[in-house]
Amino acid sequence: MNRPIRFTFKKMLEKEGYTVFTAANFAEVKEHIQGHEFDAVISDILIPGTNGLDILKTIKENSADVPVIMITGDPNIFTAAEALRQGAYDYLSKPVNRQKLLQVTAKAVEKKWLTNERKRLAEENKAYQKNLEGKVRERTQELEELNFFINNIIESIPSIIITLDLEGCITMLSANALSLLGRQNKSEVIGKTYQYIFPQKLARDIDKIIQEKDWNISHECQLENGATIGYNVSLLLRNQQEVTGKVLVMRDISEKKKLENELIQSEKLATLGLLAGKIGHEMGNPLFGILGYAELPESKYPQEEDLKHIVKQALQLKKMTRDLLTFSKPKPPQIASIDINSILKETIKFLKEITGQIKYHEVIVEYSPCLPPVMGDEEQLKQVFMNLLINASQAMKGPPEQDTLKVTTALDQQEKKILVCIEDSGCGISPEDIDRIFSPFYTTKGEKGTGLGMTVVKEIISKHQGHIFVESRLGQGTKVRISLTVQQQQ
Ligand SMILES: Nc1ncnc2c1ncn2[C@@H]1O[C@H](COP(=O)(O)OP(=O)(O)OP(=O)(O)O)[C@@H](O)[C@H]1O
Ligand SMILES: [Mg+2]
After folding, report:
1. Is the four-CA dihedral 275, 278, 284, 286 of positive or negative sign?
2. 100, 261, 269, 283: least CB-packed within 10 angstroms?
3. Which of 2.40.30.10, 3.40.190.10, 3.40.50.2300, 3.30.565.10 is the CATH number of 334-490?
4. Span 338-353, mean pLDDT?
């Protein structure tokens, strides 16, 4: 544009507060734009020394964001459109009045300001994001280390740790919890409700603890598999206030329990030993007399039921005395070669025909035909079978046709052992009680039982270096298996 117009535009714009630089030709334009950041450029499309579109290109190369307003004398639509295509912000056709000039300039300056602002914010945002990423990385590492540390502690202590959320779903567990739960992988249990995952008895006990809010109190639970678990349930708190779940800390205390029981048992046995000696001694002689006096008339008057009862009761007392005497200073066992089948036959006959302690029951017997002899005390082994058969018979209270008492003998060739099995279809024993049946004085028969029968059985069998195993299901019956070592060939 020519000088007067440049001057007029400069005046008009400066009056509005803009700082204005003018250039008369392309060389001056280049000089100005070097190292300057303009908010807007207003240029004639025809400028001495070059084409207006070249100016636009040069300015854009130097600073892509600056809005360039082109002024065209001849409103040649083609040139204007070309200018816009090449990045011009707008164009003004001559003659340009003040209002139009100010309006377009203001818009262009505002656009530049907005572009600058957007850039600044983008940069700020980028820096902030970078900073944030750094902080997140740092915290993640800290958390990973903490997590590793906590996991290490959890996996190193022998206690089993399990956490539950508010709904009772398992959220975390130590590796040693898996064997308690009978699982292989944590993924099998995480997210599942403890009632479905825990052994039934433990789940029931924990339900109760949660209902009764028995937090932080030590509990014990004997599981279905016989193991004993010591545990407590605590609340899981966030900021020591908000309850977010529960934490269970458990320990397998089976071994400790076993030792405790053995201690109690041996203390009981020691007391029993003293007592037994005294009672056995005091009762032995009068009992011998009663039996002698009663058996004589009984054989004379076999139809007299009362006499039979006297003999039966006296024999029961004799058995009890004998049980007690096993604990007092025991007489040395009379070791001899014994045929197990025949002492079983004799014992069953005795209990059916003499004492009547096996009533109604049809005894199914399956004796192995080729049992080698065992070395043992005949009287004591008879006592073992008698106690077991009486227990089996007493456990069966159903109609006679439904009761089965089965006695089998077998030979384990490989192990060189004789196996005796006495099986009944009686009331059975619950898993919690099965270990207690060998404890002295443990009985569920009230006044009718002394609770010594099984204690005596165990004592005699272990003296014979044998083993006893009891399997039972409540309401279905009991199987007692005894193994005795076969007599070595001389
Ligand atoms: N075959 C069985 N079926 C069911 N319960 C049994 C059986 N054998 C033993 N028990 C349980 O074990 C307990 C202890 O048995 P044990 O023989 O030691 O004493 P008892 O039979 O009660 O009395 P006793 O000293 O007169 O024999 C019994 O009271 C009973 O509860
Ligand atoms: Mg008994």
Report:
1. negative
2. 100
3. 3.30.565.10
4. 91
